[in-house]
Automatic annotation (TrEMBL):
Highest taxon above the source species: Eukaryota
Name the record gives this protein: NAD(P)H dehydrogenase (quinone)
Record's keyword terms, sorted: Flavoprotein, FMN, NAD, NADP, Oxidoreductase
Taxonomic source organism: Handroanthus impetiginosus
Subunit structure comment from the entry: Homotetramer.
Any one Pfam family match given in the protein's UniProt record, by short name: FMN_red
Keyword Aminoacyl-tRNA synthetase attached: no
Keyword Oxidoreductase: yes
């Protein structure tokens, strides 16, 4: 009897967003590591989308229901994604201004976040950005985003041994394993949400 042909796993397209704009951002380093790890997860595709070109939200920039070209391009990326991976550093116990700005632009009508799955990772001082994660989950209620509950990923970037190299690349193996668990959970949860369980 001929062997059954292998069935390709369903594809989940993830857009990765980082709340820090600085070049050596550790949170951006988490996303680079996640993109690297995703190569070992069949069906999971991650695209990094830079939020730094977005202007400050100003509804005066909306003309006859259209948005500035750079905003439209960002909104289209979000709309086309199945899922969002946020790297959300903590500024003053909350999400960063740039990330909130990007979220707000894509929430303008029609809200392009709706019905998507999402996961959050963060790194920083003491709690590793955890407080920003819980604010982001709250924002997601109104956006109709659906976050994975577990596992959670917080990484203290400043406790020895070093977690990042001088370019902001993640060098900690156990953090990489934890990141992989996040990605596997996000992949499975996205399929569940879309009714495509395998
Ligand atoms: C304006 C500002 C506010 C911050 N507030 C907090 C904070 O409330 N809690 C915390 O743990 N770290 C705080 N930090 C530290 C950052 O979270 C930390 O530097 C982190 O590494 C920044 O992320 P990045 O490396 O991706 O740029 C703050 C940093 C800045 C610039």
């Amino acid at each position: 009897m001929a062997a059954a042909a292998a069935v390709a796993p369903p594809v989940v397209n993830v857009v990765a967003l980082c709340g820090s704009l600085r070049k050596g951002s550790y949170n951006r380093g988490l996303l680079r590591a996640a993109m690297d790890i995703s190569k070992s997860i069949k069906g999971l595709e991650i695209e990094y989308v830079d939020i730094s070109p977005l202007p400050f939200l100003n509804t005066d920039l909306e003309v006859d229901g259209t948005y500035p070209p750079v905003v439209e391009a960002f909104r289209e990326k979000i709309l086309a994604a199945d899922s969002i991976l946020f790297a959300s550093p903590e500024y003053n116990y909350s999400v960063t201004g740039p990330l909130k700005n990007a979220i707000d632009w894509a929430s303008r009508p029609p809200n392009v976040w709706a019905d998507k799955s999402a996961a959050i990772v963060s790194t920083g001082g003491d709690f590793g950005g955890g407080r920003s994660q819980y604010h982001l989950r709250q924002i997601g209620v109104y956006l109709d985003l659906h976050f994975i509950n577990k596992p959670e990923f917080f990484l203290n970037a400043f406790e020895p041994p070093a977690k990042f190299d001088s370019d902001g690349n993640l060098i900690d193996d156990s953090a990489k394993e934890n990141l992989k668990e996040i990605l596997l959970s996000l992949y499975a949860f996205t399929l569940l949400l879309q009714g495509k369980c395998v």
